[in-house]
Amino acid sequence: MLETLVAIYHHTMERNRERVGFRYKQNGTWHDITFGEMDRRVTALASALIEAGVRPGDRVALLSENRPEWVQTDMAIQRIGAINVPVYMTLSPKQLAFILNDARPEVMVCSSIEQRDKVLEAAKEADSLRLVVVMDASSGEGAGLEVVKFADFVAKGEALGTKHHEEIAHRERAVEPQSIASIIYTSGTTGNPKGVMLSHRNHATNASGVLDLIDLKPEDSALSFLPLCHVFERVAYYAFLTKGACTAYAESMDSIAANLVEVKPTFIISVPRVYEKIRARVLGSVNEGSLVKRALFTWALDLGRRVFLAKEQGQEPGPWTAMELKLADQLVFSKVRERTGGRLRCCVSGGAALPREVGMFFQILGITVLEGYGLTESSPVIAVNRPGRARIGTVGQAFTDVEIKIAEDGEILARGPNIMLGYFNNEEATREAITPDGWLRTGDVGTLSEDGYLTITDRKKEILVMSNGKNVAPQPIEGALALSPFIAQSMVVGDGRNYITALIVPNFENLLKEAKDRGWTETTHEALAAKPEVRALLRREVDLQTKDFARYEQIKEFAILSQEFSQATEELTPKLSLRRRVVLKRHKEAIDAMYDKAPVAAAQ
Q1: Of 289, 280, 297, residue with least CA distance to 484
Q2: What is the rounded CA–CA span in Å between residue 88 and residue 111?
Q3: Would you state the pLDDT for residue 599?
Q4: Using CA atoms, how far apart are residues 481 and 504, in angstroms rounded to an integer?
Q5: Does 140 or 558 have the greater pLDDT score?
Q6: Chain centre to alpha carbon of residue 11
Q7: Under 8 Å CB-to-CB from 502, ≥6 apart: which residues?
Q8: Residue 97 Cα to chain centre, angstroms
Q9: Which tens digits make up the pLDDT trace of 432-465?
Q10: pLDDT digits over 108-140, tens only?
């Protein structure tokens, strides 16, 4: 097995130099980069970094959206024995300054003028930086730092010729599986982020596990849109690099639907929110169609649901049902698949729980979505469902070479070659996270079936402890609410209280259509959120989606918000997880008002 990223890199370059490895869209046109062209640029970058004084073990920070320059910079860093410190695009200058002061990189590579200005602002509070390389800006100076254009930096490396090639080769030979490849700062749902130290072996074994899971071929292609600075997207990048398969970079999160049709990928990884949006968009399109179209889709979906549920019980469809299902696929499901490019053979979902209804929806359409589970601290995959034996509602079985066990308090523990080396500059936090015998305390609560399927209950620290002693896991309730066509986001509240409430952000796109159908005159988010008829509609939706929960888990009151939770307001992390403490603080008045109403009888 290839145990370092350097070994993966050379393995691919020796076999796939002429193949297209990367695609990006610029000025409305897709452009291709072969692996051989990548190698030329990576070598030039490695030479330029050495010339700039970067030594083995030095940190190089990388602040950029997904694009070819990101992976070129990453591999140049790996080849010279340095450490990649990837940074989320959405961080504020203050948050960036914390990372710069903790990791102390001397070189920062960033993408745009906007990001350059953020770096220069953060550098006023951090004294380690001396060089900033910018992909989309000219050279110059700022905040006492040298600022160099990325293209000029590459050209400088090329102009050096073979000057540093022997040094690059020497450093590559010195890279060991346990060498630190990356320090990834967790998104910090509470307090300051911690720098997760991941080794070459951590990354390489997780990528190898992906290849054990999915039979990737050089002819496969992926559409990349989750941030490469997050390890979830990184594992796919390294797996595709290993196989010499092509990765295309989406223009933005808003262009995913169009890019899927253009690129026609065979593979994507995503968080549940994207799959939920795709499902909502499909259902919305159907509802806008003719009566015949709606009836046909409803018939096909109901048929697919019956077959799916029967298969879960080990029952195969009879000849007549199989013929009906084939017809449904020809008339309905194949048309929906075409809207994803028509070639998707595998999708992976992670980062949060995938609602059962969403997972089942894609399976019925004939698109395999494998739900998995992991953390930055585990590189990231701990468990995942396998093709052909996925069990919806679980996150599958232990990943390659990974052990899982459940602690006495229900916490999930994991051990294997994917577990981080520790937290950078934070031995105390490392001791808290990893037991003396190597088990990672995940902070998640779950159960493990007799045949090894893992089910996540909730975050250990996010469980709501009500004043009556009841414990409530908010994520399953929030996942159920997300199935409503009229609810875009929600956050369940109730810690220390005697009943459960929720903050709800309506799906305003669908709500505006409903308003038009009902003849309502309100068109702004604020006006709709305040309308009594909207509250009544959402009340019905809340009750419908949560009817199967225990009485004490039922939502007694809810507040309607007119603006989505977002990264801009710091209510969402870069991987779109709720920062619950931020939301609680930001909407304290609305939350208090829900509990200041007439007392509700304590949940039984």
Answers
A1: 280
A2: 12
A3: 46
A4: 9
A5: 558
A6: 27
A7: 477, 481, 490, 491, 492, 493, 542, 555, 557, 558, 559
A8: 24
A9: 999 999 999 998 989 999 999 999 887 666 778 7
A10: 999 999 999 999 999 999 999 999 999 997 655
* ∠ Cα 85 89 95 (to 5°): 70
Residue bearing tokens 């070479």: 401
Q: What is the gyration radius of the CA atoms in the chain, in angstroms?
A: 25
Give whole-number Cα distances, 241 to 174, 208, 256, in Å. 22, 11, 22
Return all residues near 104 (Cβ < 8 A) that are at least 6 apart: 59, 126, 128
pLDDT given for residue 470 in this prediction: 75
Instruction: Count CA atoms closer than 13 A to 375's CA, side-chain side.
Output: 22
pLDDT digit string (tens) for 324-383? 999 999 999 999 999 999 999 999 998 777 888 899 999 999 999 999 999 999 999 999
Query: Is 342 within 8 Å of 357 (Cβ atoms)?
Result: no
C-alpha distances in Å from residue 437, one per residue of 203, 219, 369, 379, 401: 21, 42, 34, 19, 16
The Cα 344–Cα 267 span in angstroms is 6
* H or E element in which residue 32 lies: strand 29-34
Average pLDDT over residues 25-36: 97
pLDDT value at residue 561: 96
- Do residues 394 and 370 make contact, with C-beta atoms less than 8 angstroms apart? no
- Cα separation, 604 vs 602, whole angstroms: 6
Smallest Cα–Cα separation from 386: which of 209, 205, 206?
209
Residue-averaged pLDDT of the chain: 92
Instruction: Evaluate whether 202 touches 419 at the Cβ level (below 8 Å).
Output: yes
pLDDT tens string 165-208: 999 999 999 999 999 999 999 865 445 789 999 999 999 999 99
Of 131, 168, 137, 165, which Cα lies nearest the Cα of 151?
A: 137
Query: Mean of the pLDDT values across residues 51-56?
Result: 98
DSSP conformation class of 329: I
Contact of 215 with 242, CB cutoff 8 Å: no
Measured from the Cβ of residue 485, the count of other Cβ atoms closer than 10 Å reads: 17
Contact assessment for residue 87 and residue 95, using Cβ atoms and an 8 Å cutoff:
no
Task: Supply the pTM of this predicted model.
Answer: 0.82
**Residue 311 backbone dihedrals phi, psi, to 5 degrees:** -65, -35
> 124 burial class (0-12, 13-18, 19+ CB within 10 angstroms)?
exposed
Query: Which residues touch 496 (CB under 8 Å, ≥6 apart)?
Result: 465, 466, 467
Residue 405 CB-half CA count within 13 A? 9
Q: Which amino acid is at 227?
A: P
What is the rounded distance in angstroms from the CA atom of residue 457 to the CA atom of residue 446?
A: 5
Report, as an integer, the average pLDDT of 524-533: 94
Asked if residue 221 has pLDDT above 80, the reply is yes
Backbone angles phi and psi of 62, in degrees to 5: -135, 115
Q: What is the mean pLDDT of residues 407-415?
A: 94
Under a CB-based contact definition with an 8 Å cutoff, are residues 528 and 580 in contact?
no
